[in-house]
Amino acid sequence: MKKAVIAMLAVCSFAGVAFAADVMEFKASMGTVTFNHKKHQESLKECKICHEKGPGKIEGFGKDFAHKTCKGCHAEKKQGPVGCKDCHKK
């Protein structure tokens, strides 16, 4: 019984990764931001970098989170967009 519960938890945890959208769009006042989730999954290989509380929507996600976390990561790794017009497409 214990093994069955553990197996179900593992399946549920990984289901979020399997069914996550490949590309997501966010409407922002400065223009639409397109985010390639699949590309980030493949390059980072660690969901908890963005999803601190596990798979699913990021709690507190918004302008402040994206500018601090996403832009900060891009600047640190010297990869990805960091300029306003690089992310915000009209």
Description:
This protein is α+β, with helices and mostly antiparallel strands. It has one domain: Alpha-Beta Complex (Cytochrome C3), CATH 3.90.10.10. The protein is built from four helices and three strands, in the order αββαααβ. It has a three-stranded antiparallel β-sheet. It is globular and about 55 Å long.
Please supply descriptive tags for the structure shown above.
90 residues; Cytochrome C3; 4 helices; 12% strand
Give the arrangement of secondary structure elements.
Elements: H1 2-18, E1 23-26, E2 32-36, H2 37-44, H3 63-77, H4 84-87, E3 88-89
CATH classification, class level: Alpha Beta
Q: Could you tell me the mean pLDDT?
A: 81
By CATH, the superfamily comes out as Cytochrome C3
What is the alpha-carbon Rg in Å? 15 Å
Q: Largest sheet, described in full?
A: 3 strands, antiparallel
Number of strands: 3
The appropriate CATH architecture is Alpha-Beta Complex
CATH topology: Cytochrome C3
Enumerate the spans where pLDDT stays under 50 for 5 or more consecutive residues.
Answer: 9-18
Number of domains: 1
User: Order of strands across the biggest sheet?
Assistant: 1-2-3
